[in-house]
From TrEMBL:
Limits of the Pectinesterase inhibitor domain: 25-177
Reaction(s) catalysed by this chain's protein: [(1->4)-alpha-D-galacturonosyl methyl ester](n) + n H2O = [(1->4)-alpha-D-galacturonosyl](n) + n methanol + n H(+)
CDD domains in the record: PMEI-like_3
Originating species: Prunus armeniaca (Apricot)
Protein name from the UniProt record: Pectinesterase
NCBIfam families the record matches: PME_inhib
């Protein structure tokens, strides 16, 4: 009996020792993986409380780590949304914070957090299905989820901002870990990357390519100001859209409307970029919020616009005044005009493709944190009271698969600005956020652009100069700088 007892306790001791060694091994593994994130201590804390152990395989641990991070992020985000909706004036935040609630709602903060939750839900499902196959989608959605939270945080303060910070750190960590997953296929950055001249982005479906290039259109609805169509306003047609791809043909005319749609598959086809125009004149100077000033806002996925114009006519005195605000994944604008002054196009988030479009503006007239490609477009600088800058990319995290790519475009002054263009300074862009990323390649650049090409964000004190990525490659024209030292830089990122 004594021998049996000794053997029993020896086995128990060996089991405990083995478990301890396994737990130590798991902890070492977690610490190693978390070292690749921006917030390693939060990552370790999250995973050590996840209930996983040594028996997990490498891929299983990676998936569990991602799933746990997404779950906690969703919980944190949900708490924020509930907190915002249930908050009463004079509550726990105090009178000063209470005064800001209306402002937060004005800037779509709650809507942005719900948009973030949507992308987190998509990411979680894709991770469960096939993390390798869906890697590029997951990267795009997590990048957007973080962008939406950052945008909300820009307009929030106090406890609200802290809640968003907690969620954003978890999303950032998850994105860093997803970036380490090996894809089923390797996307090589070559001469023309994932978008070649004369072609659409590779994620544009064959059906949508045919629609974009078709000479005859079968529309689900027709809009005409003279009453000859199904509707007299674009808003009515958009509101009538059902699920799936919904094609709206908008006849020539100027439509003074303000439109905000969350529907997927909306397609607008006009009679020409300067023949069919949707226009408005809201602006920050008139009391609108920056996003609220947009003439046309779309947050539903798969948005397509062809042969149509979007304008904001607030003018230079209007300050920030958006013509178009897009947070639509896999959106395409083909042969469109986007006309304004300051902040003309808000390419907010997700994957966007612009081909043969004319975009007019002054300061930061293409801004946001989308993964956006501008191909064979005219980027037209207008006369401004100060200096001009075309691109203002808002990439805030090194793991985000976002940035602006300008390829085979013309960068030129408007006809009224051209005679006095050398009296003002104009730049290719400036870094809106710390990890701003943009490239101008194979384009023709007028000498309206200052010799240094890019300019620092005012008051930044050089903080982003070591973390941004601005590049020029194989550009021509008087402002091309192709022979200048450093102007042959190449961007090594995946734009899929």
């Amino acid at each position: 009996m004594l021998k049996l007892v000794v053997v029993f306790w020896a086995l128990v001791g060996a089991s405990v020792l083995g478990a301890g060694q396994a737990n130590d091994s798991y902890q070492i593994y977690v610490q190693k993986e978390c070292s690749f994130t921006r917030y390693p201590s939060i990552c370790v804390q999250t995973m050590m409380g996840s209930g996983l152990g040594h028996e997990q395989q490498h891929v299983d641990i990676m998936l569990a780590l991602a799933n746990k991070t997404i779950s906690e992020t969703m919980l944190a985000t949900s708490k924020f949304v509930n907190f915002s909706s249930q908050f009463k004036l004079g509550g726990e935040l105090g009178a000063r914070e209470a005064q800001r609630v209306h402002s937060v709602k004005d800037y779509y903060c709650e809507e942005l957090m719900n948009m973030s939750l949507k992308r987190l839900d998509q990411s979680l499902l894709a991770l469960k299905q096939s993390p390798r196959k869906n890697k590029h989608d997951i990267q795009a959605w997590l990048s957007a989820a973080l962008t939406f939270q950052d945008t909300c945080k820009d307009y929030a303060s106090g406890q609200i901002s802290k809640r968003i910070d907690n969620a954003s750190q978890l999303v950032s960590n998850l994105l860093a870990l997803v970036n380490r997953i090996t894809s089923n296929h390797t996307t090589t950055v070559t001469n023309h990357r994932s978008v070649d001249r004369g072609r659409f982005a590779k994620w544009v479906s064959q059906r949508d390519r045919k629609l974009l290039q078709a000479t005859t259109i079968k529309a689900d609805a027709v809009v005409a100001k003279d009453g000859s169509g199904d509707y007299k306003t674009v808003s009515e047609a958009v509101n009538a859209a059902s699920g799936g791809r919904f094609v709206i043909y908008v006849k020539a005319g100027v439509y003074e409307e303000k439109i905000h749609t969350k529907k997927d598959g909306i397609t607008l086809i006009g009679d020409g970029k300067y023949s069919t125009i949707i226009t408005g004149d809201d602006s920050v100077a008139k009391g609108a919020s920056m996003p609220g000033s947009a003439t046309f806002t779309v947050t539903g996925d798969g948005f397509i616009a062809r042969d149509i114009g979007f304008q904001n006519t607030a003018g230079p005195q209007g300050e920030q005044a958006l013509a178009l605000y897009i947070s639509s994944d896999r959106s395409v604008l083909y042969r469109c005009s986007i006309v304004g002054y300051q902040d003309t196009l808000y390419a907010h988030a997700l994957r966007q493709f612009y081909r043969e479009c004319d975009i007019y503006g002054t300061i930061d007239f293409i801004f946001g944190n989308a993964a956006a490609v501008f191909q064979s477009c005219d980027l037209v600088l207008r006369r401004h009271k100060g200096y001009n800058a075309i691109l203002a990319n808002g990439r805030s995290d090194p793991g985000q698969k976002t940035g602006f790519s300008v390829q085979n475009c013309r960068i030129i002054p408007s006809s009224d600005f051209s005679p006095v263009k050398h009296s003002y300074s104009s730049y290719l862009g400036r870094p809106w956020k710390q990890y701003s990323r943009a490239i101008v390649m194979e384009s023709t650049i007028d000498d309206v652009i200052a010799p240094q090409g890019w300019v620092e964000w005012p008051g930044a004190g050089g903080s982003s100069l070591k973390t941004l990525y601005f590049a020029e490659y194989a550009n021509g024209g008087a402002g091309g700088r192709i022979e200048q030292k450093g102007a042959m830089a190449w961007v090594s990122c995946d734009w899929s």
